[in-house]
Amino acid sequence: MVHVDDVRALALSMPEAEEKAHFGHPDFRVRNKIFAALRPEDGRAVFKLGREEMLWLVDHDPAAYSAAPGFERGGWTRVELSRVDASQLRRLVVAAWKTIAPKRLVAAYARAPNAWPVSG
Prior knowledge:
It contains four helices and six strands. 36% of the residues lie in helices and 27% in strands.
């Protein structure tokens, strides 16, 4: 089980990530594009993943993952934080960041020693 503060810490550890707000909720951006958002009052986070990855997660663990209503075509994935562990959270943050970050930034980060919090 992970908490909102774990999401915040991991998201902000990504290159060029910053915290802002969107509709009154904290979000995390790279070059002003949102890759993750928090819903602290619900114990949830939302991550921008590829559509296929989102569908796979929802299919394999519907208690933990669901398509964000209204945004399922874009791969936005809602995550019940009480149902994922730290390793899953790290994978989600990295995948979401990689989905949104410019390709050159992703490539530069991937070349850095010990770049990814987990296998990227």
